[in-house]
């Protein structure tokens, strides 16, 4: 019979072995921070229905959430003065900027060796091979599922925005959390949160697939490309650099993009 201690030791040994392989691969191969830089996809799952759900067009969040913004603002104006609505809307927008930074930095990005090892494994697969079953540990799988697929296929236009199967439950959870925290002001604050989320999705898609015709667009693109192609431990804010400045993670170098 396998004891819990033996299971933990086996898991620890597997993680240690994977880290050793990742470190060796990093030393033996030139640094390249993506698998495919074209607008191309990999297969993530064996099951066709799961694979289908992982692809989302960039207009989908707007179709889902613009009506939500309109409805929550209407509720806000019914309960508050216009000045109060504006103030609570700004609170929700600020909450979004914090979430964007915290989730991207501490949830989406694991230790560097996990990122490197995942990229090594994915790069060794055929394009039709499902990635998730090939990854060795939960940490590898979780990273690739929530963010690694975007770093390894950064210009895949169907995996740039959050799938509704994830965003809708999260939105419901935040609606109840805002209601508990802000009471009658929660609709106005929630509208600010959702506007922040849609701005993030729109800017993120634009940095990868729109031409940088304005100075602001060029700044957004350069900052985000530094995160992708030069140093994934910096520039976590996609829609704005506020919290990168506060926490000292804003870089100042050139993008260093590998084509």
Task: Please provide a written account of the structure.
The chain has 259 residues and is an all-alpha fold. It has a domain at 43-209. Helix content is 65%, strand content 0%. It contains 10 helices and no strands. The protein has helices at 4-28, 48-53, 60-79, 82-108, 112-123, 138-152, 164-182, 186-209, 215-229, 242-247. Helix 3 runs antiparallel to helix 8. It is globular. The model is unreliable at 1-11, 17-30 and 255-259 (pLDDT under 50).
Could you write a compact summary of the structure shown?
This protein is 65% helix and 0% strand. The protein has helices at residues 4-28, 48-53, 60-79, 82-108, 112-123, 138-152, 164-182, 186-209, 215-229, 242-247.
List keywords for this structure.
globular, disordered N terminus, 259 residues, 0% strand, mainly alpha, 10 helices, disordered C terminus, single chain
Q: What summary fits the major beta sheet? A: none
Q: Tell me the helix content.
A: 55-70%
Unreliable segments of 5+ consecutive residues: 1-11, 17-30, 255-259
Mean pLDDT: 88
How is the topology of this model organized?
Elements: H1 4-28, H2 48-53, H3 60-79, H4 82-108, H5 112-123, H6 138-152, H7 164-182, H8 186-209, H9 215-229, H10 242-247
